Amino acid sequence: MFNLTYEFKLKPTRAQIAMFEDWLEQCRRVYNYGLAERKDWIKSRSCQINACSLRSEYIIPVETQRPNYFNQCKPLTQARAKYPELKAVAVHVLQQTLKRLEQAFVAMWERKHGFPRFKKPGRMRSFLFPQLGVNPIQKGKIKLPKIGWVKFHQSREIPDSDIVKQAHIVKRASGWYVLLILQWNVSLPQLIPHGEAIGIDVGLTSFIATSKGLTVKRPRFFVDAECKLKLLQQRVSRKHIGSNNWHKAQKKVALLYEYIVNCRKDWHRKLSHQICNNAGMVFVEDLNLIGLSRGMLGKHCLDAGFGQFFNILQQTCFKRGVYFQKVDSRKTSQICPSCGVETGKKELSVRTHVCSNCGYITDRDVAAAQVVLQRGLAAVGHTVKMLAEGKFTGIPMKQEFSNF
């Protein structure tokens, strides 16, 4: 099976927008009720056997099972029969809300995320249709269960050979969007290493540096918009909370954030295609992105969006038949790519690689990219030669990226 997600902007009527808003509110209430049940069960088991708690604890029978997705769906069916506002929402949408809560707890246990929190009004911004009817899409229209036909801006054609599995309705500052999950019943071959290889090193001075000597200056999407963002947030703070003017000011802040995100993602996609134009293999560093985001330069690392760029680059490589792999990132800037001797740790102000053993001189980031390339070739079983052995010749000191 092969899945792809197509995103389109919806053009709903006022009645449909009101229905979307009501469904989001009902999903939020179901989410909070399910979270309260789980939290009460956990609190009832947190008191020690031989001592009384200083706080009042919930008393739940011992035989009561831990709440999960499956044993919370049955009370949901009973609640829909009792409350008409819940019955107005498609049952699969509410069940997907409980599954979303289950995924939040799984992420807390397995990926060390924080404990799930209750959602305030307006914090629930999406709901999911796990199933659609027969032929749910026509030219510029999609049929949603219990809602009917909703128009959308069809910016590209949807293949006829696919199956529309799910529809994800998302509310953003710029409007409503639908994310269609399309499925093809095909088996894709595993990509094998082939063609010309490129090693990539990422950084804050140069966003990327390739093993061929190409360096790309890092655009400062968030930093450049920080002054305007500060002005808009000051206007929000001067408005009465909950008033119409407060909501208008909040929307302007959200639109600016969305604009920054779209600019960064668009630039990452263009750069990833530029990298894949003349490459058969792409190797990047396997960085600790969480550690970088919590460091002294965390704001600039988050502004650069290294994790998003790696994901987009991997998707682009998959679509264009380019082999992609991450390699060990330790000491890439401390090893000479020409002779393999460790040159020692460099300060961030030192931007030139100078090897005292073989005399090789080049840009620091380019040298790290060449080390990444050598590690990637060794990982896929290719013969690796050092620069001094004539494997790489004619590498320029610096080459600016002229397309952006």
Helix content: 25-40%
The proportion of residues in beta strands is: 15-25%
From the N-terminal CA to the C-terminal CA, the straight-line distance is 36 Å
Order of helices and strands: EHHHHEEEEEEEEEHHHEHHHEEEHE
Shape summary: globular
Main sheet characteristics: 7 strands, antiparallel
Give the low-confidence spans: 391-404
Number of strands: 15
> Helical stretch count?
11
Q: Round the Cα radius of gyration to an integer and report it.
A: 27 Å
Q: Structural class from helices and strands?
A: alpha+beta
Summarize model confidence as the mean pLDDT.
87
User: Which sequence of strands runs across the widest sheet?
Assistant: 2-6-7-1-5-4-3
Notes on the protein architecture:
There is one protein chain. This protein is an alpha+beta fold and about 400 residues long. The protein contains 11 helices and 15 strands. The strands form 3 sheets. It has a 7-stranded antiparallel beta sheet with strand order 2-6-7-1-5-4-3. Strands 12-11-8-9-10-15 form a 6-stranded mixed beta sheet. A two-stranded antiparallel sheet has the order 13-14. Strand 9 and strand 10 form a beta hairpin. The radius of gyration is 27 Å and the shape is globular. The C terminus is likely disordered.
